[in-house]
Amino acid sequence: MAQVELLQSLAESAPARVGDLAVRLRLAPSTVSGLISQMMAVGLVERGTDPADRRVAVVELSEHGRRQLADWHGAHRERIAAALSELDPRERAAIETALPALSLLVDRLAEQPREGSRSGGVGPCR
């Protein structure tokens, strides 16, 4: 799943430095670097140099990476559509009504520090 998130982040804003990707994804730079190495090996991303500072390496999607991401999005949409089609109209309407609040929830979660931070969050599940 981290690879898909990395592809999505690059699709939204590329080229990107490894450190910037690590901040966006809330992962350690070494983790992002490892993911990039794996993804380069299968041709999903390409490494280049920052046009503003040629000493700095940046990463961007390859054409293969763009196709893989588009395929993943298509499969995801089909899976959601199939699951929604199995619900009755009242259940689908309830989901539609809840979407704005769920979107706000996602935004708020994205603003919070990652786990390990003790800023008054909920404790571990038992």
From TrEMBL:
InterPro entries: HTH-type_Bedaq_tolerance, HTH_MarR-typ, WH-like_DNA-bd_sf, WH_DNA-bd_sf
GO MF annotation, one: DNA-binding transcription factor activity
Pfam families for the chain: MarR
PROSITE patterns in the cross-refs: HTH_MARR_2 (PS50995)
Domain HTH marR-type: residue ranges: 1-111
Protein name: Winged helix-turn-helix transcriptional regulator
Record organism: Actinocrinis puniceicyclus
